[in-house]
Design a protein that fits this description.
The complex is a heterodimer of chains A (about 375) and B (about 400). Chain A is of the alpha/beta class and about 375 residues long. Chain A has 2 domains: about 240 residues, no CATH class; about 120 residues, abc type-2 transporter like fold, CATH 3.40.1710.10. Chain A contains 15 helices and 5 strands. The radius of gyration of chain A is 29 Å and the shape is elongated. With about 400 residues, chain B is of the alpha/beta class. Chain B has 2 domains: about 240 residues; about 120 residues, abc type-2 transporter like domain (abc type-2 transporter like fold, 3-Layer(aba) Sandwich). In chain B, strands 2-1-3-4 form a 4-stranded mixed beta sheet, sandwiched between helices. Chain B is elongated, with a radius of gyration of 29 Å. The chains are: A alpha/beta (about 375), B alpha/beta (about 400). The interface between A and B is large, with 117 and 126 residues. Strand 4 of chain A pairs parallel with strand 5 of chain B.
């Protein structure tokens, strides 16, 4: 117990005197929290520029263009004389979508024949495509509904009945947990959890393996276990404060949805930080130089985020990869903490991930102890 | 740059190449990890579109019509129905336990009310915190319910005495024919994968350059290094040259391989993309040089490189487009060579844009290569000569 406390104190003192580690373990935490979300500050992508090709030039075609312009997701940025010209605007990146109204459009509608307009969007960029297509299709659907209801009313049907007649089985869509469907609310909370993991792994790598001789002369494995426990305690206490800062303050400053009461989140944070800290200590024996931790771990954030059932659905991962990814703490921590914090999931609803994280904590603890002991034996 | 005295560059390059080949760490950092990263990213997106996303359905009607709706949802490629659930609360629990992405509630008396023409509402609650599966489910449930609703309307029109042709013509006066430009399969893989490979490349080029230059300062060997090159410019150019060749080759091979293996189309000019790849490598090496020159400390330089290269992807506009960003984020994105490279790559590969549309990003990449090194070398000269800057970690 006393050696654990000595290892704890040694780590606290050592970290405070290590500006390189402090920069990562403390500085990066607040820097990233306010730097990373800046691209998404506006939350929803609106007013995607679209080009209108109006080959009809009638009051009805102009009305459709006006309705598209009025839709919040798109704005009419250009008028093109032909589809080819509109496509050139998209190629240059000046428009994200095209509304193509064929000649004879108004005539067809007046005749009662179905009129078809072309709604195209640039599928090079996922969000541009989604917003442009949604905006243009919704504007067209609104125009169509108005025309059909007016026709039915002309046949003597009351308005309410006409509305039900033209869409007898309406669908109401409601977004869950992220009412404004904000992009920052979707992407940032998960990335914050990843930042906790990555800075902790790198920071521990910068601190390097322990000097076990400072912990007396007991059996090697006992000293290694005391060192891993004491040092992890120091890292985890610091990161518990960071987690509180991220989930409690940063989430509110940016207005991300917060529905959880905190119990499930707290229960998840403990094994998440422990397993990450033990993993960091196990990896730290591999780094012969301090900066190697930064250099080799930097790229891992990118695959880690796509393996965490969050930016990319796990249903789409190959089965072997989905299984292997369980070895990374963020794979369980990100989806479970998002459910606990943003969706209000209960402890029982995150128990699967909780079990995995505790399992990782045990495995990585043993790995860290063995790795630290083996390193002493090798250098002795 | 005064590269006239080529032997100096080659001496420095040979010295660096020898150090790289004899270092196990260099093998790991410059070869094994980049290859592992590319393999991992390709494996993540190997299956392409997500399929059979679970949707929890609460059918309070259990009529022919409601069962038909459930079957139609289940029959889509993208979704599978889980349940049955007795109450909406049970179904929402499935979402909270990560066993479903959405809940569809079908009200009691759906069939009866549809026949009476009171338009009973089917409600789709979709998870808007998991954007990609949420969007897919929303799009496809809408399509299914829309098809069913149109079918009911056509039947009702026939009941009013319209012929099948007339009914089919009148049920939706203005229709939209939707099309995806440049990515007809709407392949999510094609959205992301071409961008992730170069992002990994940019990280490793930056880290590699910082390591090659910074290690000379850390180990106090800058004197020998300078002597080998004959001048700071030639020594720096020589030290970076082996990695320039290595990463250019790696970048070209992995890009070509990804496009070939994963079947992503290359509609534009492969030559232009290759040229941009060379410039991307040089641009990140230039930035690496700048970071080392002004930090004169390998550990600090590595931290700075992590800050510059790590979160870069978010600022490139591939996920959230640049025109929707506030000015500060747009400006930071413009200061990343990756932003310009990806604009060019996606324009060429996906859109098959004419070369003229790619001139601006190409010029921006070239600007990094031309403008950054003189500024960095101005400071690097002093750092390389003054032992006070050596050995700091």
């Amino acid at each position: 117990m006393r050696t654990v406390f000595r290892a704890f104190l040694g780590e606290v003192r050592g970290t405070l005197r290590d500006p390189g580690a402090l920069l990562v373990l403390v500085g990066a935490i607040s820097l990233y929290a306010f730097f990373y979300p800046t691209p998404y500050r506006r939350e929803v992508l609106k007013e995607v520029p679209v080009a209108v090709v109006d080959l009809d030039q009638t009051p009805l075609s102009r009305q459709l263009a006006r309705m598209a312009d009025a839709h919040e997701l798109v704005r009419v940025s250009a008028r093109a004389a032909s589809l080819a010209e509109a496509e050139r605007l998209v190629l240059k990146g000046e428009a994200g979508g095209i509304l193509a109204i064929p000649s004879g459009f108004e005539r067809d509608v007046k005749r009662g024949a179905p009129a078809t307009v072309g709604v195209f969007a640039d599928a090079t960029y996922f969000l541009v495509y989604r917003q442009a297509l949604t905006g243009l299709a919704e504007a067209t659907a609104t125009l169509s509904a108005g025309i059909e209801v007016k026709r039915l009313q002309a046949q003597g049907m009351p308005e309410a009945k006409a509305l039900a007649f033209r869409d007898p089985l309406p669908l109401v869509s409601r977004p869950l947990f992220n009412p404004a469907e904000g992009y920052a609310s979707y992407v940032v909370p998960g990335v914050l959890i990843l930042i906790l993991q990555q800075t902790l792994l790198i920071g521990i790598g910068l601190r390097g393996p322990a000097d076990l001789t400072a912990l007396g002369k007991g059996p090697l494995l006992a000293r290694a276990a005391a060192s891993v426990t004491g040092r992890s305690l120091a890292f985890c206490l610091l990161y518990a404060v960071h987690a509180l800062f991220y989930f409690g303050i940063v989430a509110r400053v940016f207005g991300f949805p917060v529905r959880g009461g905190g119990l499930a989140a707290a229960a998840l944070v403990v094994p998440f930080l422990l397993s990450t800290s033990f993993l960091g200590l196990a990896l730290s024996v591999l780094f012969r130089r301090r900066e190697a931790a930064i250099q080799t771990l930097l790229f891992t954030s990118l695959p880690a985020i796509f393996l965490a059932s969050y930016a990319w659905p796990p249903e789409a991962l190959p089965a072997w990869l989905r299984a292997a990814a369980q070895a990374i703490p963020s794979t369980s921590a990100i989806p479970a903490l998002l459910r606990a914090n943003q969706m209000g999931a209960s402890l029982a609803q995150v128990r699967h991930e909780l079990g995995v994280l505790w399992g990782l904590a045990v495995v990585f603890f043993v790995a860290a102890v063995l790795a630290q002991a083996a390193r002493v034996r090798r250098t002795a | 740059m005064a590269l006239g005295d080529a032997p100096g560059v080659f001496r420095a390059a040979r010295r660096e190449a020898y150090q790289l080949v004899s270092s196990r760490y260099a093998l790991v950092l410059l070869v094994l990890l980049p290859l592992a990263g590319f393999a991992l990213v390709s494996a993540i997106f190997w299956n392409r579109l997500p399929e059979a996303l679970p949707v929890a359905v609460v059918d309070a009607d259990r009529s022919l019509l409601s069962r038909r709706l459930v079957r139609m949802i289940d029959a889509t490629k993208s979704m599978r129905v889980t349940g049955p659930f007795a109450s909406p609360a049970e179904a929402f629990d499935e979402v909270l336990a990560a066993r479903a992405y959405a809940v569809v509630t079908i009200p009691a008396h759906l069939e009866r009310d549809v026949k009476r023409g009171t338009a009973p509402k089917v409600v789709l609650y979709y998870d808007a915190l998991r954007l990609i599966p949420g969007s897919i489910v929303k799009r496809d449930v809408r399509a299914v319910v829309g098809t069913l609703s149109a079918g009911v309307e056509i039947q009702a029109r026939k009941a009013l005495g319209e012929t099948p042709d007339v009914a089919a013509a009148r049920f939706e006066p203005v229709r939209s024919m939707r099309g995806a430009l440049f990515n007809p399969g709407l392949d999510y893989l094609a959205f992301l994968v071409p961008a992730l490979g170069p992002t990994l490349l940019s990280i490793f080029v930056l880290v590699g350059a910082v390591h090659a230059l910074g290690a000379e300062l850390r180990d106090g060997t800058a004197g020998e290094w300078l002597a080998a090159g004959g001048s700071a410019t030639r020594a720096v150019a020589g030290a970076l040259l082996p990695q320039t060749l290595h990463f250019t080759a790696l970048g070209l091979v992995t890009t070509a391989l990804q496009f070939r293996l994963l079947g992503i189309p290359m509609r534009g000019s492969p030559l232009l993309v290759a040229l941009a790849t060379v410039l991307l490598v040089l641009a990140y090496q230039a930035v690496g040089l700048l970071i080392v020159a002004f930090s004169a400390n390998l550990r600090l330089a590595s931290s700075a490189a992590a800050f510059y290269g790590g979160p870069a992807f978010a600022f490139t506009g591939v996920t959230f487009p640049t025109f929707g960003m506030p000015f500060a984020a747009k400006a930071w994105g413009a200061l990343l060579p990756l932003t310009h490279y990806l604009e060019l790559l996606l324009g060429q590969a996906m859109r098959g844009a004419p070369p003229s549309a790619s001139l601006a990003p190409l010029a921006a990449l070239a600007a990094f290569v031309v403008l950054v090194p003189p500024l960095a070398l101005w400071r690097m000269r002093r750092v390389m000569r003054d032992p006070a800057y050596w050995g700091r970690t």
